[in-house]
Structures
1.
Amino acid sequence: MLDPKLLRSDLDAVSQQLARRGFTLDTGTLQTLEERRKAIQVETQELQAERNSRSKGIGKAKAAGEDIAPLLKEVEGLGDQLKAKEQELALLQDELTGLLMGIPNIPHESVPAGKGEEDNPVLRTWGEPTAFGYEARDHVALGEQLGQLDFEAASRLTGSRFCVMQGPLARLQRALTQFMLDTHTRDHGYREVYVPYLVNADSLRGTGQLPKFEEDLFRTSGEADYYLIPTAEVPVTNLARGSILEADQLPVRYTAHTPCFRSEAGSYGKDTRGMIRQHQFEKVELVQLVAPGQSYDALEQLTGHAETILQQLQLPYRVVTLCSGDIGFSAAKTYDLEVWLPGQQKYREISSCSNFEAFQARRMQARWRNPETGKPELLHTVNGSGLAVGRALVAVMENYQQADGSIQIPDVLKPYMGGIEVIEKT
RNA sequence: GGAGAGGUGGCUGAGUGGUCGAAAGCGGCGGUCUUGAAAACCGUUGAGCCGUAAGGCUCCCAGGGUUCGAAUCCCUGCCUCUCCGCCA
């Protein structure tokens, strides 16, 4: 959520900045609602003040043993009048916050202009696309040939966009997960957390998935109204919801491994082959809660932490800066890491690292106590995948494939593979 | 699943219809004393909204209700704890 004060004081400037990302702000409606809200709020508060002082007077009179009947007569009707105003105000406020909750974040000034994915500039490239003396197979061919990756079984068990893995390949995914968690906790100073995979609507509002993107989520149908998490960002960032952190606790760095569930509504026909786009996938997430002055440094740092994983796995990748037209709803700035996939002869997103500034913190009321002012102020939140495990598995399979269809184990994963150095048909 | 007890400020905890945003203690901050520290003593110490300010308003788990007036009474929900049952 944007700062309502900013919207009041600088509506046109906000509107212009949002136009960069292709969002049209309905300034007229906003202004009208805001004016009405203010008028009604003042009236309501005046009535409340009157009720309070009258009631206090009645209390005193009663204590003094006076007859309060005439005083009661005076306040007749005041209650109803107040109730009506309060209801009017509540309605207006609901409408206003509803509108506010649907406004995306303002892109940072350093975010390049652009309309969509094709306008994202490449910031840097690491490694060279892996060369093979033959036409590289994709992970589907590799995995099925090895007899360790099965989409048919998954569609029988559930439906499309799921997979079953077996044997060393299943273990390889676990190895990737362990390696990532170990690296982030040991080398990068993150604290590992285990969190629920089902969350309530408040959490999703906090990080910005609700109210706008309900159709992307799986929702439970039982008595409890819960959602399957689309990313660990939701439960992990919401750990700070409604709390005030002390300055010496910052920065807070969390990492978590969770499955992620996405309905992928609207992506019919996209990436239908393989495990690039699944309803369920594993991800290791990095989250930082930082003082506002630190968030852009933290973004660079966190992006570097995610890159470390790719480098240690010796996977070629590049970093792109999302342009103003491609950036996500809650983010002020985002870097995507794209890994080289020989099977597609393309770079594909494997991590997305964003600074949300105070956008999520305001929705969550996640604050810190600024020692300079002594007052609670909003935190900044930064997060990124470190990395998407499913896609990392795809990348390892495709980049480490050998002519005979076997897959070598990257050196850094060998300690996690129990002596397996090459995945072969078993 | 059955029975019961609760949810109050950073923490412990008092408050069961009126001047209560809320006693007391702890913790925090500032000071006195001290070479320094501790102890003791004094003061101070929740969050948000409107307002230049004075001041006003809201918040005692959440949402409804009763009342001139609700932290306090009633209803619903959520959460926590205890006992029994069941269970990974």
Note: The CA atoms of residues 101 and 352 of chain A lie 23 Å apart.
2.
Amino acid sequence: MTTRDPQATALARLAALFADETRAACLLALLDGRAWTASELARHAGVAASTLSEHLGRLVAGGLLAEERQGRHRYVRLADARVAQLVEDLAAQVSPGAAVRPRNLRESSAGSAMARGRTCYDHLAGRLGIAVTDALTARGLLEQETGFALTDAGLAWFASAGIGLERRGRRPLARACLDWTERRPHLAGVAGAALCRHALDTGWCVRIGSERAVKVTAAGERALRDLLGVESMELR
DNA sequence: AGTAAGGATGGAGACCTCGG
DNA sequence: CCGAGGTCTCCATCCTTACT
């Protein structure tokens, strides 16, 4: 009888949670940062509600999801930003070229909308996220050379733009998150989340349907051009 | 809307047999 | 002895049904 490495056992159990298409579909859906009901996720994953209930139980028990019950509804969301980062990092390992090809025009349109702009848990991603990250860097507001960090000018810019940077726990102020469509890092962390929240609250961008895709509004194009010098063509 | 129980199904691994 | 192929068993996943 050989003794097992506890760390290997824990890693295998964590990996097993990801190693199911239904659970993976749920985790990817929950990357939008919102709380979903069990029935919404069941429809999304294409399985029966009872089947999804079992999967949710495992994901909650495994610490990947947090649940909240309201009346007869069971809302679930990703447990925290670290789980979101893990899911996004794993998704980034899947080459876009190896991804399933769109089966029809609708899927193709949805895919291009996601590539154009989307939320990645609680921050902006896709070409929109990259354009904002590049603009912040070009203006000396974000430092990428030594790992993502806001410069003093960057802190001042967020303050002047009225975007509050509330530190919670040990979450870094700025962090790089690998973008799975652009294959480049975009801004995440407290600053990335605050910027995304501000963009949605002020109507710079709006969500498209029930997916994670977001669309920059005319007001958003003006704001991004005036504040960061982002040209609208960079967002298309 | 959500959960629990029970049964069906399919994949993976273990085991066995047989031929070269 | 070794590899191929067949069979069996276990387990994860899914569904239907009944129930809260």
Note: Confidence is low (pLDDT under 50) at residues 95-103 of chain A.
